[in-house]
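Bench log, entry 3. Co-assembly request; chain sequences pasted below exactly as received.
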Amino acid sequence: MNDSQEKPVAAGEESDVTDFILQDILTGVLAPGTWLKQIDLERRYGCTRPEVRRALDRLAQKRLVEHVPNRGYHVYEPDGRRAKEVGEIRIILETGVAEAIVSNASAESIKKLSVLADTFDHMILMGTMLELYEANLAFHRELLALSGNQELVDLITEIRQRTSSAPVSQWRTRARIEQSGREHHLMIEAIRNGDAEELKILTKRHILQG
Amino acid sequence: MNDSQEKPVAAGEESDVTDFILQDILTGVLAPGTWLKQIDLERRYGCTRPEVRRALDRLAQKRLVEHVPNRGYHVYEPDGRRAKEVGEIRIILETGVAEAIVSNASAESIKKLSVLADTFDHMILMGTMLELYEANLAFHRELLALSGNQELVDLITEIRQRTSSAPVSQWRTRARIEQSGREHHLMIEAIRNGDAEELKILTKRHILQG
DNA sequence: TTTACCAAAATTGGCGCCAATTTATGAGTC
DNA sequence: GACTCATAAATTGGCGCCAATTTTGGTAAA
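Structure output for the full assembly:
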């Protein structure tokens, strides 16, 4: 964490620092356990001290980093128990809306899902870890949006982040990633066939394997 | 919001301002739509400007207040759609762990639930709105804790707050509150009988009526 | 050689000031 | 009398400084 490189500041500029730090945690650039020194972040992201502090506080609220008073903030270590529990929650929720998804799916929305699934597959070969992560997220958001429950989409997006601190350990092998890509298409096929039970089974398996 | 009363500052002192504002929103002291002027909060809770700002930012993250740049923060108006969606989520989750709750319940934990249910009943008559809210929360937390999923407990506690901005409109009549109290006991009874299906039905009804 | 203690450097975090933007007020005009 | 524009008041929000605490490095003693 002492690589005081100059300015990777994204061109967008007025964007929030929180997102940049979040991305670096999710992609593993900032490894679990790392102490996030304010002065380093300040320089690394080219922003001011109060901005860094606000970002750290937000990430602490989201339980992505831990705050130790007078000691600072550090990235959470991967927590096996929590990962397991979040998986359980996701299974309950995502299988719980399987019927709604199947009945709400139009030809158009299935088409859109296919595009996103293809994008994911493409990113396996051509994209960065971040692009892959975001392609996956986009697919699952679109899928859940079919439930008609916007709060659910946001909620799952949120709790997904809580355990993805170690995406490396989750997506260890390329074989698993490719398997995920195939499962996306299988889920689309189940929706096309109006087979909610099959969608549930696939969803459960998909979440359990990561 | 121009009642610049002196200092209701709680005796505890080093506690977080965020919780005080949160309580006042949940109990309706700070009504939906109210603009939260920093200088007022500063005086009302006897704290500094940065503390107020941090609290407002946290509440905005939790979607309890809305931030309008250069205009300030105001308490969210009750959102029918969101309330409905959060209700759906709660039903899926809480009925989804009904089996686990029933099978994990020991004689001791049932006893503990009974005490909390009685406390709630007591608060209907003797307590303030905040005490009632907290007694209700305590019962449901204890109930969900039996699922063995700590993340789930925290998650539901969190999303509960997102729509309880208008607890007054939710718990309009005393009749409904008393009905809630009775349902708590019915749920305990279902657990004691090992009847997960009955617990699901009660849970669903309990959430739908508020 | 190891341990305890002290001093110096570094880091966190509280606090207040001031610029930028918005809202309210009042005067002038149609 | 109502509308518009300009000026003044109020509010938000960015930024930097300094005190408090912790950590590190060095020195002296056992």
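Chain B is about 70% helix and 5% strand. Chain B touches chain A at residues 54, 57-58, 61-62, 81-82, 85-86, 88-89, 92-93, 96-97, 149-152, 155, 159, 162 (CB under 8 Å).
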